[in-house]
Amino acid sequence: MRTKSAAAWAVAVLMLGAAVGGCAEQSDKGPSGSSAKHTKSHREPEDKPDSRVVEDDDDHTVLELSDGRQVSLRFTRRGLEVQHRDVSDDSWSARRTVYETGINPCGGIRAKAYQDTVWLTAGFGAYCRDGDEPHEVIAAVATGDLSSWTTDLTKNTTPWPKARISDGGARVDFVRNIWLMTTTLTWRKGSGFAGVATEYKPIHPWFVGRWRATDGSQQLTVHQVGPGRFARVVIESLTGSRCKGSAIVTGTDQYNLSPSNFKLDQGTRTVHCPPDELKYRFDVKSSDGPLRLRTIGNHPKTVLTYERVG
């Protein structure tokens, strides 16, 4: 929808990173080095929407289904309302409320259908038509005679940008892809909406494993992404003051890894425990290493080198 902004995505990523920053350390089983594999999610074959939009503006959308029926969706002072009519009928059904709210709607209603399954997304916010993000975002699905709608409310900053339909219209996945994660809200015929699931982008397997600094000062253990969590690095000092903690690690490519949201578990923070996330990042050039902690900038310098130990 028209209220989407890149800044909102960035804030959402940072907030989510902070929320998972305190996740407990987990032992990720799996080979280190090049034998480790990227994880890939299985996706069911999709059914292509077969509806068409016959009317559309900021407050009103009319959708025509493959069997000729039409669905009229309209923002009102009460929220979002729906009517429908058969192909042989000129009169619309009585209005039904899909979602009731006193908050002003955002511009536009996204709606599509496959056979007799209709789905939509919409947003509501006090000033979103002036450029602010929505306060409420809904996804809704109806099937059959379209007399009953199932609705899910999320506190997102933008309406769901994409929906995938499968199983002959018995499943709809509302999907949001951002930089390091994919968030999915699933509706199933017979059971309705399930909770939102988040899948994080794996880091390159070259990084995964245990590493020891060549100067003996510290040890790193890098864990791959797990269910509902980012990849993480556990940092532990081996000499000097005790410091042990963990941080989220994210990678934009196979060679670089950035730490963030460090949580201290034992001792006190020391030099490079943790490395300053605005000044340093890790890199590795092959499955055998070495792993390096390097400064960020036009002329990066290596401050620590690590050898793989597990």
Quick description:
Helix content is 5%, strand content 44%. The strands form four sheets. Strands 15-16-17-18-19-20-21-22 form an eight-stranded antiparallel barrel. It is built from one helix and 22 strands.
In words, what does this structure look like?
There is one protein chain. With about 300 residues, this protein is mainly beta. About 5% of the residues lie in helices and about 45% in strands. The protein has 1 helix and 22 strands. The strands form 4 sheets. An 8-stranded antiparallel β-barrel has the order 15-16-17-18-19-20-21-22. Strands 1-2-3-4-5 form a 5-stranded antiparallel sheet, with no helix packed on it. It is elongated and about 80 Å long. It starts with 5 loop residues before the first helix and ends with a strand. Residues about 1-40 have low confidence and may be disordered.
How large, in whole angstroms, is the Cα Rg?
Answer: 25 Å
Number of strands: 22
Helix content: under 10%
Largest sheet: 8 strands, antiparallel, barrel
**Poorly predicted ranges:** 1-41
